[in-house]
Structure formats: structure tokens, C-alpha cells
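Chapter review. Work through the record for LacI family transcriptional regulator before attempting the end-of-chapter questions.
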Amino acid sequence: MTDNTPGMKDVAAVAGVSIGTVSNVLNRPQLVSEATRLRVQAAIVELGFVRNETARQLRAGHSRTIAYVVMDAANPFFNDVARGVEEEARAEGMVVYLCNSNQDGSREREYLERLREQRVQGVLITPIDPVGERLAEMPGRGMPVVLVDCQSADESQCSVAVDDVLGGELAMTHLLETGHERIAFVGGPMTVQQVRDRHEGARQATLAVDRPVELVRMETEALTVAEGRRAGERLVGLPAERRPTAAFCANDLLALGLLQVMTRQGLSVPKDLAVVGYDDIEFAEAAAVPLTSVRQPRELLGRTAARLLLEEASGEASHKHQQVRFRPELVVRASTRIHRP
Ligand code: RIB
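C-alpha cells for LacI family transcriptional regulator:
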């Protein structure tokens, strides 16, 4: 017995059997007579014994767990993706560890180390920056890794994302078609691949029109509501002749922060500033001014990523790495409208 936690040795002593018999009752009850099984189960109840599943799984060299390392647990986008992961994993009898890197590189690295020690079957991750060496090591050290919401640069690992360049194009084209000529791109840091791709799509859309338009990049330190508020304060502080009439935000949280500042300043959305977000989380539609947003199939992203990870972790020879890319969809709501100068 370690400290006062009863172990298998204590159960064996109380039931008057060997430790192997206790193990059989727990793992292969069909090998044990009913009388012995009942004696052992009575000892388990009497002692309040709980099996150490982690130790058992470590001894077995594998675990029935996978992990999802998200970039920001406060962002509903990741909760929706995680719901899809959990549905798929649960169907296979697996448990999902959810870890929040909080956009902190050292915290992300620490989680990856702990998860390898825990012998999880594999890791889903939305990395905070381009897939670095710490991830490249993972597959080589028996740890399948699938990128989520982020496109793998090559075929060395699986990834599941939407086409963020197309998503940026859809958002920007919508604002251009509604007459805007000076449009802010609100998002950052630009080291996040999704932000870079959305900005690139917006830039490409401006090149496709035959009239002068201006894309004003307003980089943020994170993809949060607070950073959206800061960007909103910078926007409203611009002189009228330089102020954009529309903003495309790299995700809905930034857009909601922007909406909040516009409302506080008594400015109208979309009259004074049209706003487009990205993800189409539940709060986009529920916002005071329902938000136009680029929808990501969040639960489908999660289910697909989990299926690929479990397939790779199972060691099926037929597994081939896949870089799945879904098509985003523009959902138009009240925060944008026909803008006639
Ligand atoms: O994963 C980076 C960002 O892309 C997240 O903030 C999420 O909103 C997705 O849009």
C-alpha cells in the first residue's frame, strides 16, 4: 500500500489470492472462477481499491487516450472542434486530454513533453507558429501528430483545415462588392499561419478589382476580444479621411471586440464600419449586430482530425498521411450591407 492508497497487493492479501489472480479479475475475468472473482471484488469494495489506469497503460506501452493541444481555450472555435474530436474518440473507447497552450510556445512544448511521457496514443494540435522542430520530432518518437486548423507544409503528417486563403478572399470580395474602398485587415500575430493565409486571400481579392482599393493591415498581438477592442480604439481614433469603412477580422473574437468599441463610441455597424469575422462561432449570430462571418465546419474538423489520428495510431499499414482541406463558406448578416458612397 503506497501512503494510504490500497494497491493490488492489499486486495490479494484480503482476498487470499495472488496478485496475478487480482490482475485477471480486473483484466481477464473470464479466466477466474465465479467464487474467486466474488472474493476479490468484495476485497476491492472493502478496501476502496481503484486501479491505476495510467500505470497499467504505461506497463502495456500504450494508453487509451489522445490529446488535443488548442491555441486558446477561451475561444469557442476550439471548444466546437474539441466536441467533434471527443465524439470520434469516444466512439473508439478513447479519452481526450484537452491542453491549452494559450498561444505560449514554452507552454506548448511543455505539454508535448508531458503527453509523450504519458504515452498518449497521439496528439492533435493547433500550433501557435509554423510547424517547428518540436513537432517534427514527434512522429519519429512514436507519437502520431495531426495538425488541426492548420495546413501541413508537406505530406510528412496529417492535417485538417479549411482553405484560409479562399476564406480571406470570400470575406474581402464581399466587402469590395458592397462598395468599400478602404478596408482594414485586423489580425495577428502574423506568425500564425491561419492569419497569414487569411490576409493573403484578402490581398489577392483586392488585386482582382479594377478600381483603387486600399487594404490597411492592423496587426494584433493575439486573436482575442481584448485585441479586437484595442484595434477598434485605434480605428475610431483615425482621422475620418483615413478611417476604413470596413474591417475584415481574422476571427470572430476580434470582430466581437471591434463591435463592442463601435457600440461604446455610439458608432453604427455597418453604417460607420462594416465588420466581417471568421469561424462563425455561435456568438457571431447572437451578437448585438449579427456578424457576417466566414464559417469553418468546426465539429467536422475535429471529427476528421481525430479519425486520421486514430487510424495512424492503430498502425494500420494502409494509413496514408492526408492533408484534408475543407471549403469555407461566407455567411452574410447585418454587420455588412450595401455600401453606397
Ligand atoms: O487557430 C487560429 C485561429 O483560427 C483561431 O483563433 C480560430 O479562431 C481560427 O479561426
